[in-house]
Amino acid sequence: NCKGKKLLDLNVQSCVVDISFICFISSTCVNIVILVASFTFHFSRFQLTYAYYIFLAWLYDSRNRQKRAACRYDAFVSYNSHDEAWVYRELVPHLEQDQGWRLCLHHRDFLPGKPIVENIAEAIYGSRKTICVVSRRYLQSEWCSKEMQLASFRLFDEREDVLILVFLEDIPSSHLSPYYRMKRLLKRRSYLSWPRAAQHPQLFWEKLRQALRSTTTEEEDRLRLTVTL
């Protein structure tokens, strides 16, 4: 209580703001936030990355749902650059030249200067189907993983037959354990195997043609895409 005291007796030090204490509190809070963010990123970076791409796919889907009545391509081909020779030597001639499908290939059809993620999203949502050419190199590729994530999101979001899996090599199920998304898809969907079609390639291309023509998951299941030769 300062009533009755003289103004000259007032302790002006009590009115001084302690700048050093405020700086200490501020720097401590900043350090804690950085520490928590670093630990979160270190232990959850894959989940955060996945959530980012899922959000990006959802955003693109909500903005372009009305524009997808007529797709520009029949199929977007997701593949690793190490498998490019097979794609251009086998897949493109059979599907584009022999069967007349229009394919979207990232080395040929992606727009230069546009962010790669936007190109991928536009290719997947601008095509009726996505063909994933799966190999060991494909599973190890970060960008192929992103393409698989966006294609999977579209599959589960639209609940339509939009994803076709083509295995270039026999990969044991035990080797797919680190790739939980691929393993989960194989439990629900049939697939095409190029090695198993070695002696009957025409059957392989016919099954792929049927997959490109199908419009619902039920129809795909009825066609039984898995090649058992």
From TrEMBL:
Pfam families, A to Z: TIR (PF01582)
GO biological process: inflammatory response; innate immune response; toll-like receptor signaling pathway
Main location: membrane
Entry superkingdom: Eukaryota
Keyword Glycoprotein appears in the UniProt entry: yes
Record-level Gene Ontology MF annotations: signaling receptor activity
A GO term from the CC aspect: plasma membrane
TM spans (from-to): 15-37
Gene3D superfamilies noted in UniProt: Toll/interleukin-1 receptor homology (TIR) domain
Signal peptide from the UniProt entry: none
Topology term for the membrane: Single-pass type I membrane protein
Locations listed in the record: Membrane
Domain TIR: 71-212
Record keywords: Glycoprotein, Immunity, Inflammatory response, Innate immunity, Leucine-rich repeat, Membrane, Receptor, Repeat, Signal, Transmembrane, Transmembrane helix
SMART domains associated with the record: TIR
Assigned protein family: Belongs to the Toll-like receptor family.
Name of protein: TIR domain-containing protein
